[in-house]
Amino acid sequence: MLIGEVARRSGVSARMLRHYESLGLVRPSGRTGSGYREYSGEDVRRIFHIESLRAVGLSLREIGRALDDPGFTPADLVDDLIRRTRERIAAETELLTRLDRVHATGPAGWEDVLQVLAVLRALGSPSAGARQRAALAPVDEVPVEALVEAALDERDPVVAGALRWALARSDGSAALLAEGLGSPVPEVRERAVRSLTELPGDEAVALLRDALAHPDAVVRNRAALALGAQGEAAATPVLVDMIVAGSNDTDAADALSVLAGDAAAADRIASLLVGRIGDGTTKPPARGRLTQALAGIPGATASRALADLVGDADRAVALTATYLLRLRGDG
């Protein structure tokens, strides 16, 4: 079979076939009487093998070794191909993400494109100062997806604060931050909920309400403190749990006092606190914190509870209750 016929059947150009021959990858089995290259069926099969190996990313040098070295084992080479392919996919994915973010800003001209690219580059800078300046750039220059990604990754507290401020001025960040609550990394979940607590609007409040049932106590607690400060009664049970656990218990007690703004709410909160004090599983330190929390709850229910606790078997609880009653003018 002459070179033109081989090229037609294989889809490999005659020029490339000659190149393969110069590299020693394919050697025509013979020559015609006129000196033209003549390929056998085995030669053509080898050409197809070469093309198959090229298709999976092997270099011509690697192909030659794979086909001619009797001791060649493909496992290591395949592992290397997998690694290189993953690196290429990661690079292409990063490029696609960057292009999507540029497109989302609706650039009017190349100056806008370059400005957005500069901000994106700065957000990934090793310099904290550069990242902070990028966070403080005008909102229309920073894609919200990039801000969210940066906020969830940021470890520098100053830069993190700037990013949260920027997110609070951006539209569409709440849902993206909520996805961060599902991260397997605790620090990312904490950054996500903290950013949500600083967002304005009903969407953020709704997401924080959902976070009250999150399996991560850090997420639950931050959500409860933020909602309690906004007068959201749904936060009450988690705030009480925080006091029992001794986790930001002073802040939790302050939030409960905010929620106890009317008589009915005050009585409900006092009843919850009293119930936990009387629970046989509640340990003495937690009973003391719960008693202290009654100080910020107005109304008759809290006063009666403190009066009953004056005779408590736990001397620390009894003394705390006595002191608090005097402060309230009930003792």
Automatic annotation (TrEMBL):
<keyword id="KW-0238">DNA-binding</keyword>
<dbReference type="InterPro" id="IPR004155">
    <property type="entry name" value="PBS_lyase_HEAT"/>
</dbReference>
<dbReference type="InterPro" id="IPR011989">
    <property type="entry name" value="ARM-like"/>
</dbReference>
<dbReference type="Pfam" id="PF13411">
    <property type="entry name" value="MerR_1"/>
</dbReference>
<dbReference type="GO" id="GO:0003700">
    <property type="term" value="F:DNA-binding transcription factor activity"/>
</dbReference>
<dbReference type="InterPro" id="IPR047057">
    <property type="entry name" value="MerR_fam"/>
</dbReference>
<dbReference type="Pfam" id="PF13646">
    <property type="entry name" value="HEAT_2"/>
</dbReference>
<dbReference type="InterPro" id="IPR016024">
    <property type="entry name" value="ARM-type_fold"/>
</dbReference>
<dbReference type="InterPro" id="IPR000551">
    <property type="entry name" value="MerR-type_HTH_dom"/>
</dbReference>
<feature type="domain" description="HTH merR-type">
    <location>
        <begin position="1"/>
        <end position="69"/>
    </location>
</feature>
<protein>
    <submittedName>
        <fullName>MerR family transcriptional regulator</fullName>
    </submittedName>
</protein>
<dbReference type="GO" id="GO:0003677">
    <property type="term" value="F:DNA binding"/>
</dbReference>
<dbReference type="InterPro" id="IPR009061">
    <property type="entry name" value="DNA-bd_dom_put_sf"/>
</dbReference>
